[in-house]
Amino acid sequence: MTGTPVTRTAPGSAALGGAVAPMVVVEHVSRTYGSGAAAVHATRDVSFTVQPGELVALVGRSGSGKTTLLNIIGGLDRPDEGRVVVDGREVSSLDERGLVELRRDVVSFVFQTFGLVPVLSAAENVGVPLRLRAVPTAVREARVELLLDLVGLGAHTRQRPGELSGGQQQRVGLARALANSPRLLIADEPTGQLDTETGLAIMALLRAVVQAEGMTAIVSTHDPLMIQLADRVVRLADGRLVEG
């Protein structure tokens, strides 16, 4: 497996009687935008795996290919070459219906821009994915309450995004991403708009919720301070996987 050696044993990464299948398999993934002299090689022959329960930090400077790779893993983009398997599903060959089901049932996203609905309260924002799945009201409200407590916002359920700090808004975004109990959480520069102290707090929270919810996470960042809580680091430079 490519990348910095694991410093902690991730939950679910081993089992009696044999190895557990990886949650994510990336094999020889390449993605190019444009053609000729103007072509941009966003990823170049990238391969790695992520085990169940791991929190992997995807590290590289801006323009290194992190966002493209995350979008391909989450089914928001397709590779020109190679394949991606998530939770046993070959993402790169799914049709549109399969991709919708993947993003509904298996994968969830946290973005640098919080993406909250301004007119909705914190609780209502977190409840949006559950409403889309027609989850019964009592079940939905209980799940929303649990998640807001989990991210430390139990006292802010009725506040709208404009009444919350940046760190609090990102906590709401994280709670919303957890609403449907995804097996894989993809976070693209989730601390990019936050100061260092708040960013570290969000990363610590990500570490805690990955353990509490029994999920796998891939978190992209270019800030070396943000990788301390990851189980493993995967580094990109100019679209290629690099050692160290």
TrEMBL record:
Domain ABC transporter: 24-244
SMART domains the UniProt entry points to: AAA
Gene3D superfamilies: P-loop containing nucleotide triphosphate hydrolases
Pfam families, sorted: ABC_tran (PF00005)
UniProt keyword annotations, A-Z: ATP-binding, Nucleotide-binding, Transport
Cellular component annotations (GO), alphabetically ordered: membrane protein complex; plasma membrane
PROSITE patterns: ABC_TRANSPORTER_1, ABC_TRANSPORTER_2
Claim: Transport is one of the keywords in the record: yes
InterPro entries cross-referenced by the UniProt entry: AAA+_ATPase (IPR003593), ABC_transporter-like_ATP-bd (IPR003439), ABC_transporter-like_CS (IPR017871), ABC_transpr_LolD-like (IPR015854), MacB-like_ATP-bd (IPR017911), P-loop_NTPase (IPR027417)
GO molecular function: ATP binding; ATP hydrolysis activity; transmembrane transporter activity
Name of this chain's protein: ABC transporter
Recorded superkingdom: Bacteria
Cited SUPFAM superfamilies: P-loop containing nucleoside triphosphate hydrolases (SSF52540)
